[in-house]
Amino acid sequence: MKTLLVNKRILVVDDEPDVLETVVEILEKSFVETARTYDEAKDLLSSQGYDLAILDIMGVRGLDLLDDAVKRGIPAVMLTAPGFNPHYVLESMERGALSCFPKEDLAQLDVLLKEIFRIVSQDLNPVAFTIKRLEPLLDARFSPDWKTRLDKLLKSHPILKEDDKGKPK
């Protein structure tokens, strides 16, 4: 699993310079490009190929950039601010994000990304992994109705439906 991030081309988009610096340091074995604005990121997405895009949900129109990445076949994960809510997690997954990472977990980003690459390489569903990982955090912060919304999403959304082994149907 050590080599899963080596030489990967990764675009990181966030309006906070310290977040960008931290991600570049964490992903030192990958080729990382950064962007601080929506326009800069949109230009990079349209002109470069990436193995992964890491997108801030809020400050840089991350959901719009997610749509662009998905259209171009670039896998994407979303960074969420400490005040994130389940709506953004679910909407990101619905629109094609592989996972969401709270910025407070940034120190574990390389471990989480390796796990996502492993899951995807085995044709497993990264959404199930993400929800299991975030469930304690979501349970602590929000009313139980976030699980009802998730259940509806998983039952109704064709991309996110999974079989009993966690594979997309």
Keywords:
169 residues; alpha/beta; Rossmann fold; five-stranded parallel β-sheet; 7 helices; 5 strands
Concise overview:
This protein has helices at 17-26, 38-47, 62-71, 86-94, 109-121, 126-141, 145-156; strands at 9-13, 31-35, 52-56, 76-80, 99-102. It is α/β, with parallel strands linked by helices and 169 residues long. Strands 2-1-3-4-5 form a five-stranded parallel beta sheet, with helices on both faces.
| Portion in strands | 5-15%
SSE order in H/E notation?
EHEHEHEHEHHH
* CA-CA gap between termini: 26 Å
Tell me about the largest β-sheet.
5 strands, parallel
> Which structural class fits the helix and strand makeup?
alpha/beta
State the strand order across the main sheet: 2-1-3-4-5
Q: Helical residue percent?
A: 40-55%
Oligomer type: single chain
Q: Determine the number of helices (DSSP H or I, runs of at least 4 residues).
A: 7
CATH architecture: 3-Layer(aba) Sandwich
Please, what is the CATH homologous superfamily? Response regulator
- Estimate the global geometry from the Cα principal axes: globular
Radius of gyration equals 15 Å
List the domain count as a whole number.
Answer: 1
Tell me the CATH topology: Rossmann fold
List strands and helices in order, with pairings.
Layout: E1 9-13, H1 17-26, E2 31-35, H2 38-47, E3 52-56, H3 62-71, E4 76-80, H4 86-94, E5 99-102, H5 109-121, H6 126-141, H7 145-156
Helix pairs in contact: 2-3, 4-7
Describe this entry's structure for a reader.
The chain is of the alpha/beta class. It has a single domain, classed as Response regulator (Rossmann fold). It contains seven helices and five strands. Strands 2-1-3-4-5 form a five-stranded parallel beta sheet, sandwiched between helices. The longest helix has 16 residues. The two termini are 26 Å apart.
